[in-house]
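User: Batch of two.

Assistant: Item 1 of 2:
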Amino acid sequence: MLRVALLIVLFTGSVSAFAADADKPAAPTAAAAPPKPVVSMEDIRLFTAVFGLVKQAYVEPVDDKTLMQSAVRGLLAGLDPHSEYLDQHAMDQLSEDTSGSYEGLGLEVLSAEGTLRVIAPIDDTPADRAGIRPGDIITRIDDKAITTDNANEAVNLLRGKPGSSITLGVLHEGASAPIDLKLTRETIRVASVRVRPLDHGYIYIRLAQFQEDTGAELKAKLRKLREKAEPLRGAVFDLRSNPGGLLTSAVEISDDFLDSGKIVSTHGRLKQTDLTFSATPGDLLDGAPMVVLVDNGTASAAEIVAGALKDNHRALIMGRRTFGKGSVQTVLPLDDSHAVKLTTARYFTPSGTSIQAAGIQPDIELADLKLSLRDTTPGLITGERDLPNHLKGENEKTRRDEKKSAKGGDLDDYALSEALNLLKGLALQHKPVVPNTASAALPEKKG
C-alpha cells in the first residue's frame, strides 16, 4: 500500500482556485507582448513523435487512453517520490488510509528508484507480526521481481481480499540476501492511539499514525486513564514507526501538549501554502515531563509533532534519527474521480529548521537494541530454582513471570526502558500532577 496516509493534505479545493489570479485580464499596454507558450513546439513535436512510434511499433497494441495516462503518471513521477496522479482507485485508498480502515497487510511503503522501501509496519497487522521493519526493501511480490518499470503498480498488489495469501521477498536492513515471508491479508482497522499505565505515576502513549479522529481518540483515552491512575509524574510518548498522516491531526496533537509557541510553518511557491500554526493555552499533561521515542520510521506528521515538542522544550527526544520527510503534498482534484497529489511546500519546525532528507536528531541517541534477562540461557544454573526437583518456594517466580513483571512487561523494549529511566530522573524535579476533581477532567484547549 502506498503511504498515502503519510502525506500531509493541506488543500482539497479545485485546481481553478489556485489559478484564479491568472484568470484576471491584464491591464492593456501600448505594446503588449504575446504570452510565452508553456510548452515549446519542439517539445510537442517530440512527444507526438514518441507517441506515434509507440502506437506503430510496440510489440503489443496499446490504446490511446492507456498511453496518455502513462504519460501523465510519468510527468509526476519525474518530480519527487511523493507526487503522483490519482485515479479513482488511488483516491479511494487515500480516503481509507485517513479513516483508518482498509484491506491489506498494514504495510507502509515508498516507491522510489525502482524499489519498494518500507517506511513502517502498522502495529499488530500481518506486516508487523511477520517481522517487517522500517528500512526493509521488498524485492519480490509472489515471485514477481520489483523493477523500475513496475514499482508503482506493484504497490497495488499488497492490497487484496481478506484471507488471501501473498509472499514477499524482503531484504532486511543490513542483510546480504532477501528472505521470503508469506502473509495473509486482513481488514486493517488501525487504532491510532494506545494509552496505558507504565509504572507508578507514569503513563505510556502510543500513536500509530495521524488520522482524522486521532486527536479526539487521544483525549478520550487519556481522560479514561487518568480517572483511575495515581498522580501523574510523567509520560513516554511513542512515535516510533509512525509514518505520519494528516497535518491537521499533527497540529492538534502538538497543541494538546503545548501551552504556547509555534507548532509548524509551511512555505511554497503559492501564497495558499504559506501557513503558520501556533499552540493555544492548555496542556493535557499539565506540564508533566515527557520523553518522545522516535526512530527511522518516524516520518512526516510524526516529525512535525516531535519537532514542535523539541523546539518548544516541552519534551526530550530519544531514539534514532527520524525519516526526514519535510515536504507537504496537496491533493488537487481534476474531476470527481481523478486528482493530482503534488508536492507544493516544505514545512519547518518552530526554530525554522527544514528536516527534509535530514530528519530530526534525537536529544539522546539510542542504538537499536533489545533487553533480555541474564539467566534465560537453557541449562544455566543461577540459583536454587534452577536445580532439578528443587522444593517449590511460596514466592517463587518463573523466568516468564519475571519478564512479564519487569518494567511493566516492557523488558525486551530497550528504548522504552531507557525512556522510563530518564523520565524518573526528570520527575524528581517536577511536582506530581494530581487531578483537581474526582472525574479527573482534562484541561480544555481554548481556541
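Item 2 of 2:
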Amino acid sequence: MSPRQPLPFYPAQGENSGAAVVVFPGGGYRVLAWDIEGTEACEWLSAAGVSCVLLKYRVPGTGPYPKSSAALQDAQRALGLVRTHASEWKIDPHRIGVLGFSAGAYLAAALGVYFDERLYAPIDDADRLSCRPDFSVLIYPGYLAQAEQNFALNPAIKPTEKTPPTFLMQTEDDPVCVENAVVYFMALKEAKVPAELHVYAQGGHAYGLRPSGLPAASWPQRAEDWLRAIGVLPAE
C-alpha cells in the first residue's frame, strides 16, 4: 500500500453499530484473494452494521513478518488511517478490529503483537494514533505454528496481555494445518487474552464466506455471536 493510497471503504448499512473492521485477504503473500476473502467479507460486515475497510497490502515478493515488514507496515498504517477518519466515517475509534484470512490472518495476529512502535518513519497525524486493533478475527490462519518444530508456536508472534481479544476458526482437514489456530489459541490463553476457538472436521482452505453445506460455513454467524458477546455489536 502506498502511504497515501486511499482505502476502499464500505459504510455500515442499516443501523450503524459504530464498529469497524479492516479486512486482510489471504493469498500466501503472492496474491490477494480480493473477492472471496475481501469484497465479500466487507459486504457481509457492512450488512451487519459494521463499517469496513479492505486493505491492499504489498504482495508479491514480501512474506510473513519478520521475513518482510512491508505487509505489517501497511496494516499499521491502515489502522491509524481508519482512526483518523473515525468521526467522518461515524466509527467508534475504540471499536476498530481486524479480520484476516490465511496469510491475512497471520498479518492480523502480527498486528496484535506489533503495535507499540511503527515499522516505518511517521508520515502524518495518522501515524501518531494507535494501530492496535480492538479485536481480531483469524480465519484459517497460516504461519503461526512451525510444522518442522512439532507445531511449536512461531516465536515471532508471541501474544502478550495487550494482544486484543481474538476469534479463531479452522478445520481439521485444512492442508495449512489446524495446529495454526490451536497453538495460537493456547498461547492467547497463556497470555490471559480472551479468545474463542472453533474447530470443524471438514472444510479445507480458502473458502471465505461461500456456502458449502458443511458446519464450517457457519463461522460468520459464530463470529457475529462473539462480537455481540464482547460488546462490539449490540445484543439482539
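Strands lie at 9-10, 20-24, 51-54, 96-101, 136-139, 145-146, 152-153, 166-171, 195-200.
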